[in-house]
Design goal:
- By secondary structure, this protein is mostly helical.
- The N and C termini lie far apart (31 Å).
């Protein structure tokens, strides 16, 4: 995540600006809409990335340590 944030900051400071950083983010995290990507980059540049968007990006980019923990079940009522 730190590498991604550094890349986005560098891209935003370059000639392309914030929109170029949004494009770079959407290339890496395809599940983000343009609006969410803009909110993410804006938050990153101001120092406060929205927690919900940070979770989406982490889920897509960071591989879980244990593959079993990454399994999601739907429609199962279980008491753990």
């Amino acid at each position: 995540m730190d590498d991604l944030h550094d890349e986005l900051r560098t891209t935003a400071e370059a000639a392309g600006g914030r929109i170029a950083a949004v494009r770079a983010l959407r290339l890496k995290v395809t599940g983000l809409s343009p609006t969410h990507a803009l909110a993410y980059v804006s938050g990153l540049l101001t120092g406060e990335v929205p927690a919900q968007l940070l979770g989406v990006v982490q889920q897509e980019l960071v591989e879980p340590v244990d593959r079993v923990l990454a399994v999601r079940t739907y429609g199962v009522d279980a008491d753990f």
